[in-house]
Sequence to fold (264 residues):
Amino acid sequence: MTDRLDGRVAIVTGAGGGIGAATAARLARDGAKVIAADLQEPQLDGAVNEAFDLTDEGSIAAFIDRVMARFGRIDIVHNNAALQSEAQRQRDLDVVQLDAEVWDAAMAVNARGPMLLCKHAIPHMIAGGGGSIIHSSSGFGQLGESTLTAYGASKAALINLSRFIATQYGREKIRSNVIVIGFVLTPVAIATTPQEIKDLIAAQHLLPALGTPENIADVVAFLASDDASFITGAAIPVDGGFTAHQPTFADMRAFFAKVGGSKL
Ligand SMILES: NC(=O)c1ccc[n+]([C@@H]2O[C@H](COP(=O)([O-])OP(=O)(O)OC[C@H]3O[C@@H](n4cnc5c(N)ncnc54)[C@H](O)[C@@H]3O)[C@@H](O)[C@H]2O)c1
Fold:
């Protein structure tokens, strides 16, 4: 706990659970006044809980109006909500099997929604002297996979949206950074990911443990604070080294464990 965000007003989207809930709690512990927003109103202690729909520009505009009416400023936005429902994930397949409506739904929540939130928040942030926007992207936005095509493409869009915002409003003291998140043990991930898959993912990590929502919240709090005052336009992997190595790394480690030594 620090006081480095004392007096700052922070919006966290997707705060109904997982990473967003952890970030909302962390920003509040660092002194921020936190607005926790989600499709259904979150139930977080120590935050103002709000419902809004990222697919609806009118809902976003009304939400920002409510924040301004209550707090009079916006300093921090954690653009974190995403469409990750089971129904969506089951239909988000390879390109040939992908229904256009699944693609559109991913884009609407994961790319268009964050853009619209920024559109309505940034003028108030500029009027207040600047601020920090942190977007939650994913390794799926940087690297290919056999499935989750729409999710991956939407998360790639978010990575470059962040750079465009950083480029366009830097002189008005708006910082925009994106965290490229790896596998995180949210309550949902703990409940729904088979142990075999967790082991397979863990083998690709450079650090010994899988990530927690608090690991992500720590980085968001840093990027939100003046400690990160010279960082903007960055895409920062927060993934225990998952994307830092050769694709054959885990297989090689298993191979050398079998044959002994560490070099051919
Ligand atoms: N958990 C992981 O392993 C992981 C990995 C990489 C990236 N991420 C990213 O981190 C972020 C948070 O992930 P999480 O696992 O905590 O997810 P989560 O599913 O718990 O949270 C996402 C929230 O977004 C909300 N949401 C969905 N549609 C919405 C809409 N139309 N309007 C408003 N809110 C809406 C959902 O209700 C949900 O509470 C997401 O952007 C996700 O893509 C997560």
Residues 138 and 181 are 5 Å apart (CA to CA).
